[in-house]
Amino acid sequence: MRPVVWRNAGSQTAFQLRPGASIEVTNANPDLAGAIAGALSDLGYDVQRVSQPSGSADGAILTEGTASRSHEDRHWTALQAAKAARRNSGVIILLQGAELFSGLEGLSRTLRKEWPDTQVCAWTIAATAAAQVVHGIQQGYADGIITSSGELLSAEAGVSIAPPSSVPTAKTSVWLITGGARGVTAACAIELARAAGGTILLAGRSAETPWPTDLPPTDDLKTLRGLLVERSRQTGQRVTPAEIDRTARNLLAGNEIRETLEAIRATGSRTAYIPLDAGDIDAVADVLRDAQQKFGAITGWVHGAGVLADKLAMDKTESELRRVFSPKVGGLMNILAAIDPVQLRHIAFFSSAAAFFGNKGQADYAMANALLASAGRSLAQSLPPARVKVFHWGPWAGGMVDSALAGHFEAQGIPLIPVDEGARIFACELLGGGQDQIELVVGEAWATS
Question: Which has the closest alpha carbon to 389: 373, 366, 371?
């Protein structure tokens, strides 16, 4: 496990664009685009303002990430503009506003892996800081935050650390854990209950489907499908294979939810399961209002919701990006709107190593998780009494990693995080880790993939 450290990058350069080079600047943020274009033209660059890059210029500066639009729209239009700008040996600069939660560094890191012949960088700037952008072009800056003085702050994984050996008593009494009744997040919820106690509210999209009284218990999907097929034959029902599979998965999900609740109760903690789509703003507001009336103010929040829609960036669709953003980014914003952040004493966001290192096929997932990290850094500054942790997880031996994926990681020499160990790291760091260590990379072998 390594903490993320932000350091002055000094004179390191990622590219060269000399005066005379052709540069296209997108008009998604017209005022910023105009200021950048004017300043670069004065320096001798051949600059054009465009609605969409042509792919023929030496460099492209994309202002989509600074536009006043929804998170989904900003990130989708930035991805589209990057795809249009791509050319061999070209330079693409993704701009994002310092005052906005944004995750375009996740996109730049992923595109560099998918497009090794194109230099892609993401810069965080003040919304009107054209001078920062011009300075960055002259210096050939890589990813990072360009300060008002023109320095580049870049993120790197620091020296490996161990989680704290002892955990203090938590002041948090009511925990909300999104995506927390199944998979690795459930394991973390159980470990948190052991270490901190209190009330654990698990929120997820799966229904707590009851087990049919006429079926013997099993936790094997193939066996359960066979039992359901046999039952349909005996009852004369016409059921499609897709319906059989859906029913089997729902039943197993219900079982897993009940097992998680039982494990939490066994620690002495109180718990409840709340069916909730975190991406539905109205449902989040209603459900969390009712939950707080019943259980008390939510003072701890673990955001573990997420879905995958893996596909190379050139093939990504808008609907796929929105599906990935909905639980993770939509859920983030909806919960922040439903809970007064001042009441929170512990905040944990489940990000991914894909956000920190990039990963082929996961441009949308990397952006969504990088945005979580951006939100975590912002909340840590605005809520100094709270302990805020962003976990950039490598692959776990469970959850989204099935046997086929596990074999893929093994072939690349990437060890999986044991579920028990990952849960222990999570609970120890959230409850007892240093407050100055906000982002943590867990499963560092991912960096070599």
Answer: 373
Give all domains of the chain, ordered by start, each with its CATH number.
2-155 (3.40.50.11460), 174-210+241-448 (3.40.50.720)
Q: What is the pTM of this model?
A: 0.93
Q: Partners of 5 in the beta sheet?
A: 156
- Provide the phi-psi class of 56: left if phi over 0, else alpha when psi is between -120 and 50, else beta: alpha
Distances (CA, A) of 136 to 14, 98, 122, 266, 434: 10, 15, 11, 56, 33
Tell me the DSSP string of 316-330: --HHHHHHHHIIIII
Give 239-296 as a DSSP string: --HHHHHHHHHHHHHHHHHHHHHHHHHHTT-EEEEEE--TT-HHHHHHHHHHHHHHH-
Contact 327/275 with Cβ under 8 angstroms? no
pLDDT, averaged per 10 consecutive residues of the chain (449 residues), comes to 92 91 97 97 98 96 96 98 91 95 98 96 89 96 94 93 80 88 92 95 92 94 95 91 94 94 96 94 96 97 94 97 97 96 96 95 98 97 96 83 56 78 95 94 60
